[in-house]
Fold:
Amino acid sequence: MDNNSEHIKPGAFSLQSYKVTEFSFSEPISENHKLGINLSPTGVYYPKQKRFSLTFNFTAFYVNNENEIPILNIKTTAEFIFEDQATLENLPTYFFSNSIAIVFPFVRAFVATLTTIANVKQIILPILNLTSMQDILKNNTVVDESEGFPFTVNEG
Structure:
């Protein structure tokens, strides 16, 4: 072990849980249309628990002329725990982009698996740079001073 390894500190936050809370899928009418996606993150910060609840809404649709034909809606929730932050203003600035980047691969895998199992043309979402979503999440985050729901980590 070298001298530098003793100075490595754990991250300021960690992902505690993730789940898909809602989803709907409609078989695509045609595979010849361009696929569009919409991402909508919102957050609730519970300072008493040092917990951030990220809700990530994902919609995939085909664009047919000027019309958007929805084919997939997914709502996910991810819970993050912080080491020391007590206020929303004290959250690391990188948290808002990183939290989305941590959750998006789960959404990508879910979409690929769902479309494969549905026996339709598999939808493989591209890897995206989601740093532009940082301000959207920050602006769509509220603080809840209550104790919130009792938070437990599922271990199975």
User: Anything to note?
Assistant: Residues 69 and 115 are 16 Å apart (CA to CA).
